[in-house]
Amino acid sequence: MENRHGDRAGRAAEWLDARLLPILGPPPIGPYDPESPRTAEASVCPLCGRRIDEHGREQDHGHTFLLCPAPSTQQLQVS
Q: How far apart (Å, rounded) are the C-alpha atoms in residues 9 and 22?
């Protein structure tokens, strides 16, 4: 009985693939494009404005926190 349902599901998946492939096209193969270089903007802390590599890191229960080397001039809004 389990084999019969497996065949039915397989046929349904093949039918769906046959219908969607002409519309959507083949799936993307993977992220094999070269990575874009990091910009200076991406490595600056949005709170204190200093470079990220100047910050300390603290880990607690699987979470990583950045410790700013300078007092923040902005307040982070969390909703």
A: 21
When mean pLDDT is compared across 14-28, 49-63, 64-78, the lowest value belongs to 64-78
- Enumerate the domain spans of the chain: 2-67
Long-range CB contacts (within 8 A, 24+) of 21-24: none
Element (DSSP H or E) covering residue 63: strand 63-67
Cα gap 43→38, rounded to integer Å: 8
Whole-structure pTM value: 0.36
What are the residue ranges of helices labelled H in the chain? 2-24
Please check whether residue 45 is in contact with residue 68, taking contact to mean a CB–CB distance below 8 angstroms.
yes
Residues in the chain: 79
Tokens of 77: 């809004």
